[in-house]
Amino acid sequence: MPFKSLGLDAHLVKATRDLGYTEPTPVQAEAIPAALTGRDVIATAQTGTGKTAAFLLPVLHRMINRPRGAALALVISPTRELAEQIESVCRGLSQHTPVRSVLVVGGRPMGPQDRALRAGVDIVIATPGRLMDHMQQGTVRFDRPTTLILDEADSMLDMGFLPDVRRIIARIPNREQTLLFSATMPPVIAKLASEILRNPATVQIGRRAATAVGITQAAYPVPEHLKTSLLRHMLRNTEMPSVLVFCRTKHSARRIARIVGADGFAVAELHSNRTPAQRTKAMEGFRRGEFRVMVATNIAARGLDVDHITHVISLDVPTVPEDYVHRIGRTARAGADGDAFIMVSPAEEGAFSRIERQVGQRLPRITLPDFDYSSTPPRPPSPNGRGPGPAGGSQGRRPAQPPRNAGPAKPPRPGRGTKPGFR
Fold first, then answer.
1. How many C-beta neighbours within 10 Å does residue 309 have?
2. Contact 187, 162 (CB under 8 A)
3. 188 CB-side CA count, 13 A
4. Where does the DEAD-box RNA helicase Q domain lie (predicted)?
5. CATH for 3-204?
6. pTM (two decimals)
7. Residue 144 to residue 137: CA distance in whole angstroms
8. Taking the C-alpha atoms of 356, 362, 366 and 367 in order, what is their torsion angle to the nearest 10 degrees?
9. Residue ranges matching CATH 3.40.50.300 in the chain
10. pLDDT by residue, tens only, the chain of 423 residues
11. Pick among 1.10.287.110, 3.40.50.300, 3.30.70.1350, 2.60.40.10: CATH of 215-359
C-alpha cells in the first residue's frame, strides 16, 4: 500500500519517496488514517517500527492545510538524542512544505531557541526540562489550538519525567488532539492515557514488549569477572561490523571503552558523563561508521536510530525486562537482520529468567570452546592495603606482638593526639 493511499498531502507523499519510504509500516498504516480524522490516538508498537513518521505525517498534513500560525504542535520526547532524531525526520518530511519546526532541548544555548520560538513556529520538538525553562520565561505559550504528541511515554515514566509532563499538559488549555506513542504500556501510562485522551483510536502492533522481527538472540553464561575478557575475545574473533555494547553504569561504560580502545578498535562512549557536544560527536561518528564499537548506558536504549548496527551486546542483565527489549531493538532496524547477545553471570540468572518470560522464549546458551572460563577472580586487597587479604598469601605470617613488659597503653594527655576534625 503506497503512502498516497493514506490520504496524505501530495507534498508529504513526495517527501516519503525522497526519503526512501517505500510503503507504510503497520503502525503507520493504522495510526495515520486515525490521526488524520482529528481523533486522539494511543499507539503501542515495538521499537524500530516507524512510530516517528506515524505521528509526524498526520500532524504535518493538518498544518499544511491551515493558515500559518493558526495552530501549534508540541512533540515531547524523553531524551535529547531522540528529540534530535525526531526533528531530523520532521525536517525531511516537511522539506516541500512551509511548515517550520524548532528543537528545544538541554545542552544547547537558550538564545537561538528563544529567538526561534518568538519568531513563530508550527512544531515544537522538546524535552520536558528545557521546555519548562522556556515556559517559565514566557518564550513559548500554548494559547493556540495545540496538538500534543507524547513519544516514548513509558521511557518518560522510567526516567522520572512524568510529573513534569503532567505540569506541561496542565498548561495547554486549548488541546485539540493528543497522540500518545509508546513501546510498552505500563499501568501508570495507561492511567495517564485515560486521563488526557478523549475517545482515542487504539493501535496495537504486535505483542506488547515483544522483540522486533529479524533479531537473533543468544545468552553467554560467564562469571562476572570474565565479562570484559569475553567481550574482548568476541570482538577479536567474530565478524561484528557495528557493535553497540550496553553497560549498567557510566563508570563501567568509560572503563570498557578504554579497554576496547586499547585493543585497537575505534570506540565511542555514550553516557551521562559526556558533554552534549561529545554525545553528538559519538552518535554522528557511529552513524557514519567512524566507530566500530559504541559503549553506552541505557541512555542509548531509546532514541539511537542507526540502521547499520549489526550486534547489540549487553554486559549486564537489566532488572526490568522491557529495558532488554529496548536495548536489542537498536539492531535489525529498517527491515535488516541483527544479533543480540547478553552475558549472564550466575547471580543474574533470576533476572534473566524474567526476561525470557517477557520475550516468550528460552534463549540458547552459548559457551565458546576457545575461551578460558577457568580464570579465578582477582583477590581483594587486605584491609591495610599491603597486598592480598587472608585468602591471598598472608598465611603463616605471625601477627604483630606487643613489646615485652609493655604495660597498658596510657591515654593521651589533654591537648595531645589527633586534632579535632582532622582525618
1. 22
2. no
3. 12
4. 1-29
5. 3.40.50.300
6. 0.64
7. 18
8. 80
9. 3-204, 215-359
10. 688 899 999 999 999 999 989 899 999 999 999 999 999 999 988 767 789 999 999 999 999 988 887 889 999 998 888 899 899 999 999 999 999 999 999 888 899 999 999 888 999 999 999 999 999 998 888 888 999 999 988 888 767 788 999 999 999 988 999 999 988 787 888 888 999 999 999 998 865 545 556 789 999 999 999 999 999 999 999 999 999 999 999 999 999 999 999 999 999 998 878 887 888 889 889 989 999 999 998 876 665 677 789 999 999 999 888 788 888 888 877 667 899 999 999 999 999 999 998 888 899 999 999 999 988 777 666 655 555 554 444 344 444 444 444 444 444 444 434 333 333
11. 3.40.50.300
State how far the Cα of 140 lies from the Cα of 195, in Å rounded to an integer: 24
Quickly count: other Cβ atoms within 10 Å of residue 312's Cβ. Answer: 27
Reading the block at residue 248, the C-alpha cell is: 549498567
Q: In the structure grid, which three cell numbers stand for residue 131, read together?
A: 521546555
Strand 175-182 to 41-44 pairing:
parallel
Please choose, from the candidates 345, 363, 370, 352, the residue with its C-alpha nearest in 3D space to the C-alpha of residue 238.
370
Residue with cell 496538538: 147
Closest by CA position to 77, among listed 30, 128, 43: 128
In the sheet with 267-270, reading across from the earlier edge strand, the strands are 215-221, 338-344, 311-314, 243-246, 293-296, 267-270
Distances (CA, A) of 374 to 225, 234, 316, 341, 393: 11, 17, 20, 21, 20
Match 568476541 to its residue by C-alpha cell. Answer: 234
